[in-house]
Model the fold of this input.
Amino acid sequence: ALERTLSIIKPDAVAKNVIGEIESRFEKAGLSIVAMKMVQLSREKAEGFYAEHKERPFFKDLVDFMTSGPVVVQVLEGENAILANRDLMGATNPKEAAAGTIRADFADSIDANAVHGSDSAESAAREVSYFFADDEICARA
Ligand code: CMP
Done:
């Protein structure tokens, strides 16, 4: 099915100047960027985004990291976009990420892991609308 998913290029990858290389992987895999912006997240915005992890021991480090520099937030659209993006990213922990995935190639640690991608249709819907109004998403198909 044609899906949309939320993708974030995290502060570590922005600092490494690999925004273009990462976007290129999405495009080469047949995903279209239908919305995009660079933002410096406030603590409040980052905490709200990761609210489901609020009770986890890594929550504070996660918010510290995600507010440590600008991120690039985009909506990817395509056939099975949610799973396609997760395949491109590789495992959350870069030590476990398959060769050739974004995290294997660009991530340094489980926190500085280069990218985020929605993990289900439900989270994609919530995460896309957390960052983008309907009129900020452009029809491409
Ligand atoms: P992300 O997909 O952005 O969602 C939550 C993030 O928490 C995850 O990527 C990791 O960067 C970070 N994180 C840190 N420690 C863990 C952990 N033990 N399990 C899952 N995610 C973790």
